[in-house]
Amino acid sequence: MSSTDSSRPPVVSEAEWRKALDEQVAREKAHMRAGDEVAAARRRLPMMAVKPDYAFAGELGQETLLELFEGRRQLIVYHFMFGPDWEEGCPGCSWVADAMSHPAHLHARDITFAMVSRAPLPKLLAYRKRMGWRLPWYSSFETEFNVDMGVTVDGEEHHGLSVFFRDGDEVFRTYTTGRRGVEHLGSHWTYLDLTPFGRQETWEDSPDGWPQTKPYSWMHRHDAYPD
Q: Which of these, 28, 68, 187, 204, is most buried using a 10 Å CB contact count?
């Protein structure tokens, strides 16, 4: 953009700029508070029972949906678009995966994260190595998981995200989103807000009995969490 571009915002005095900035910050804070209300409603969504015995191919062999929780109570699955006959993963899903950081912070809040695609496991692992990711990735090849989750429709792949909750050996689907609903993924706060337990901090509006601690008191560097 050149200095004479007429499409640029106006140049104003410091007083005018700060007034406009204060108005914008007020809008952003209202947006944030509205987001808190949306997250509180999400924590109260009803749950739908799903089969815990879907079989996935993983690095440790065949694992069920129940086993994907790794003993934790909440599971976030990113439905990564990678069809069985594809040679590489979806560029858009790759953007989402690039933004995913260390899972220890999610583990500290009783959440496991995993990606699931229909491509056979060797293709997934080869692409993960190429992209430099360390994210858990499972193949749902030759299962009905993607169809049941609504991310493979008439043979066409779709991206999306599903949240699951475990009560003993029972598994429930609590939330799902797709399309532009995944655009903001990347921040740990975002992922926490998608789960039934939420951030688990005392300021949150959560159902009675949900676990909560003082804000930030649980946070550590990712190599310092207790086992």
A: 68
